[in-house]
Amino acid sequence: MDEFELIRRYFARSGRDPSIVLGIGDDGAIVRPDPDRELVMVMDTMVEDVHYPAGLDASDIGYRAVAVNLSDIAAMGARPRWMTLALTLAGEDAAWLDGFSRGLFEAADEFSMALIGGDTTRGDQTVITVQICGDVPPSNALRRSGAKPGDDIYVTGSPGDAAAGLALWQGNNLRNEHQRQLLRRFARPVPRVALAGELAPHATAAIDVSDGLFADIEKLLVASGAGGVIEIDDLPLSAALLAVQGRESAIELALAGGDDYEIVFTAQNTRTGDIAELSKRYAVQVTKIGTVTRGNALKCQRAGREIAYRHAGYRHFAGAADD
Ligand code: ADP
Ligand code: MG
């Protein structure tokens, strides 16, 4: 199968989106953006065995490649519009391509987004780059930089699940429903596009959680020139994570485990009701987990006492507070 046949078979689909003047097949795609909106561009690359294990189900890999980009779109408060795909393939595996493209279009369809172009190459290792172009009303994009001392810090969903799920997959430990549920959180992250798209009037800053909750909140605070406190006992730990890992390990994973693709945002405490309403309307768990402070340090607090935390090992330091 040559490159053109591969593109035709797996990636070229006819669509009816009037914003697409010209899709796959020419040297470039042509789109007609909404003149009243700003464009938001995001891109994320996944390298086989670096960002996902090669043996993961191909349709999950395809879904995930789109979902992690949609998470960036969500973190900007944007609406996804068009997508391109750069694919480097080590071999020619029809079953893999079939699964991969199926998962990719599953995610794209879920968010009404078309694939309008890309590039296909041969290499030693599978590398998947997705680029999404989204849009927002002018000046409505969420940024990392607007958090102010006194703001509340919120997170969507339940962080820690994805890292636990990946470890379970790697350990071939998927015997019960809780374990399988955690793997799904890694394989099929749920981008919070709808909820985040409504946050602009309420939130002061936002970021998506890809590297780990603590590290990503730190990035938001650095961009905002502020500090913060995380209330350890307020972390929303899922029943599955607690059942599989126990509380202390669940806390460690929630703070340090990556790949959650949840949204962290900050908002003034006058917005509590609006945020509860959004959480209800979109049926997405939203939890207040801390507060923005003056200074430049992010701290963790438990039962009113500060506890030391370092990315490498929450656990090693947790003991110090228990004396
Ligand atoms: P060129 O010779 O100009 O580099 P290509 O042969 O790479 O063009 O691509 C032909 C068409 O197929 C282009 O419209 C390109 O955007 C599209 N395309 C290539 N690879 C992919 C892919 N993996 N997914 C979607 N579209 C692709
Ligand atoms: Mg060309």
Write the layout of secondary structure elements.
Elements: H1 3-11, E1 20-22, E2 30-31, E3 38-47, H2 58-75, E4 79-89, H3 94-110, E5 114-122, E6 127-136, E7 152-156, H4 161-170, H5 177-187, H6 193-196, E8 203-209, H7 213-224, E9 227-231, H8 239-245, H9 247-256, E10 262-267, H10 272-281, E11 286-293, E12 298-302, E13 305-307, H11 314-318
Parallel strand pairs: 4-5, 9-12
Antiparallel strand pairs: 1-2, 3-6, 4-6, 7-10, 7-11, 8-10, 9-11, 12-13
Helix pairs in contact: 2-3, 4-5, 5-8, 8-9
The structure holds adenosine-5'-diphosphate (ADP) and magnesium ion.
Adenosine-5'-diphosphate binds next to helix 1, strand 4 and strand 5.
Concise account of the structure shown:
With 323 residues, the protein is an alpha+beta fold. It contains 11 helices and 13 strands. The chain has helices spanning 3-11, 58-75, 94-110, 161-170, 177-187, 193-196, 213-224, 239-245, 247-256, 272-281, 314-318; strands at residues 20-22, 30-31, 38-47, 79-89, 114-122, 127-136, 152-156, 203-209, 227-231, 262-267, 286-293, 298-302, 305-307.
